[in-house]
Design goal:
The protein has about 550 residues and is an alpha/beta fold. It has 3 domains: about 240 residues, Rossmann fold (3-Layer(aba) Sandwich), CATH 3.40.50; about 110 residues, Luciferase, Domain 3 (Luciferase, domain 3); about 100 residues, GMP Synthetase, Chain A, domain 3, CATH 3.30.300. It has 16 helices and 30 strands. It has a 5-stranded parallel beta sheet, with helices on both faces. A 4-stranded mixed beta sheet has the order 3-2-13-12, sandwiched between helices. Strand 2 and strand 3 form a beta hairpin. Helix 1 runs antiparallel to helix 2 and helix 7 crosses helix 9. The chain starts with 9 loop residues before the first strand and ends in a 9-residue tail after the last helix.
């Protein structure tokens, strides 16, 4: 007898979320474009997805093919999410903040069947595709607004080729174990890694979020996370699409506009990075904006300062801190009902379908109060990294006697240090990984350092995080080399080679890098010496 695992068995319903939701709540508004004021019901979203699916198929997109996108948050991104689901294809949204060099490398890794680019980023993508190391992408579309002009020699205008036929399409039979999203996360040694998120993992995260956070069908949220982040899709958007809730998107994140959206749309839930929460508190409209519709507010993507938590709490709002990562979830924890105020600096307790533990370097669970590495296990964990077996084994590979030998239930190593208290609340204590977070974006110093050392005046470089009131943390380049190098000169050199959020804001020099062994730079010594302040070393 052949035994089929449910996750491996193909079903038509796996790719039919937009059609199923349209059948249940056709007239409920699922998406709002704050920039145009346009509202889209679930019936309209499914019809748009049908048109998009026909377009993708016209360009040869089939099950398993990748559709790469470089765009801000727009309704079309939702169309492509639902359309790729119907076809069994993979949506690979890429950050529009990446430099051409980075885009070229990622496109080479993904090998998309089709690449769709919003007009403001066509020039960067064109530069990426003209590099000597760039891949060949056969089909290119440009997504434009009225009045935009764009070259048509290589990029066909999306609006001109989109079919009119919005009738139902045949939905491909897809298994829960099939991939649906590639979401990139920073590369500790260079190229960002593509995290493979399956239909099943995405659905399990939605279930976790709905049930652990208490989401409701009438919930409304302003979405401030970009769609090239797991936050854009998995923090609230897909969970609310499962329920029939409403997601409000915009191309740019303006704190005043977010405040206005909360009031005008009577938003009920809001999840944000700490920087945006702070900008909203500091905005002129903060005191006069009606926030009473919000049931809860969550901060994620880095630690939130006590003063910001206090400012939101003083408005009578329940605010707490979340924790997640692209590789697992991201909604792994929840705050219990009526949690004590003094627990606000924790990330809460594991969600309904999440196991969490804190372990030492040998993998043994440490007692409450002791700091170790946070590990997670859940059906909403990613399948691993695209074409990167070594990194996959390192992050997803800890198998114990209690887990399946095939690794299906292996623990995900987060690289973050944590502890628990006697009541089972988890607290993040720092990073085991060599990484910092700037404005909600992960920055991996080795990647930045490898580009800095290409500068002819630089012999060695170490990038350390320093505090920043606006972004939480920013990079400081500590350089061994020619001290005539200025910060402006270095930043100009890095512009176009690195995304702007990765480019250091400060520059310092050392005569010789400290070492902790033969030819091994002592990063901890550099960070201890240069990571605490900014002013004295700014160039």
């Amino acid at each position: 007898m052949t035994v089929h695992h449910h996750s491996d068995r193909p079903y038509e319903w796996v790719g039919s979320l937009s059609a199923k939701r349209a059948a249940l709540t056709p007239d409920r508004v699922g998406l709002v474009d704050a920039d145009t004021g346009a509202e889209y019901t679930y019936a309209e979203l499914d019809r748009r997805a049908n048109r998009s699916a026909r377009l993708l198929a016209r360009f040869g997109v089939e099950k398993g093919d990748r559709v790469a996108v470089v765009s801000r948050n727009r309704p079309e991104q939702v169309d492509w999410y639902f359309a790729t689901a119907k076809l069994g294809a993979v949506l690979a949204p890429l950050s529009h903040r990446l430099a051409p060099r980075e885009l070229a490398a990622m496109l080479d890794d993904i090998e998309p069947r089709l690449l769709i680019v919003e007009t403001p980023f066509v020039a960067d993508v064109r530069d990426a595709l003209e590099r000597d190391d760039a891949p060949t992408v056969d089909s290119l579309l440009s997504l434009r607004d009225e009045g935009d002009t764009v070259e048509t020699e290589r990029f066909q205008p999306y609006d001109e080729v989109l079919p009119e036929d919005d009738s139902p399409v045949d939905v491909t039979d897809i298994a829960l174990s099939d991939p649906h999203l590639f979401l990139h996360t920073g590369g500790s040694t260079g190229l960002p890694k593509q995290v493979v998120q399956t239909h099943g993992a995405i659905a399990w995260n939605a279930f976790n979020t709905v049930l652990s956070w208490g989401l409701r069908p009438d919930d409304v949220t302003p979405m401030i996370f970009p769609f090239f982040h797991t936050g854009g899709w998995n923090v609230l958007t897909i969970a609310l699409f499962h329920l029939g809730g409403t997601v409000v998107i915009s191309r740019e994140v303006d704190p005043g506009d977010v405040l206005s959206t909360v009031e005008q749309r009577a938003a009920t839930v809001f999840v944000s990075v700490p920087a945006v929460l702070r900008f909203m508190v500091e905005h002129d409209d903060w005191e006069r904006t009606d926030l009473s519709s919000l049931r809860f507010v969550k901060s994620g993507g880095g630690p939130c300062r006590d003063a910001i938590i206090e400012a939101w709490s003083e408005r009578g709002l329940e605010i707490s801190q979340g924790y997640g990562l692209t590789e697992c979830g991201p909604n792994n924890f929840a705050m219990p009902e009526g949690f004590p105020r003094e627990k606000t600096d924790s990330i809460g307790v594991p969600g309904l379908y999440v196991d969490a533990r804190v372990v030492d370097d040998e993998g043994a669970v440490v007692p409450p109060g002791e700091v170790g590495e946070l590990e997670l296990a859940s059906p909403h964990a990613s399948d691993g990294y695209w074409r990167n077996e070594e990194a996959t084994a390192e992050t997803f590979g800890r198998v114990t006697e209690e887990t399946d030998a095939n690794g299906d239930d292996a623990w995900v190593s987060t690289g973050d240090l944590a502890r628990t208290d006697e009541e089972g609340y988890f607290y993040i204590e720092g990073r085991k990984k060599n990484m910092f977070v700037s404005g909600g974006e992960n920055v991996y110093p080795p990647e930045v350092e490898s580009v800095i050392t290409d500068h002819p005046k630089v012999d060695e470089a170490v990038v350390v995080p320093v505090p920043d009131d606006r972004w939480g943390e920013v990079g400081k380049a500590v350089v061994e080399g020619d001290e005539s190098l200025t910060l402006e000169e270095l930043r100009t050199f890095l512009d176009g080679r690195l995304a702007r959020f990765k480019i250091p804001r400060y520059l310092a020099f050392v005569d010789e890098m400290p070492t902790s062994g033969p030819s091994k730079i002592d990063r901890q010594a550099v960070e201890a010496a240069f990571g605490g302040d900014t002013g004295s070393t700014e160039r």
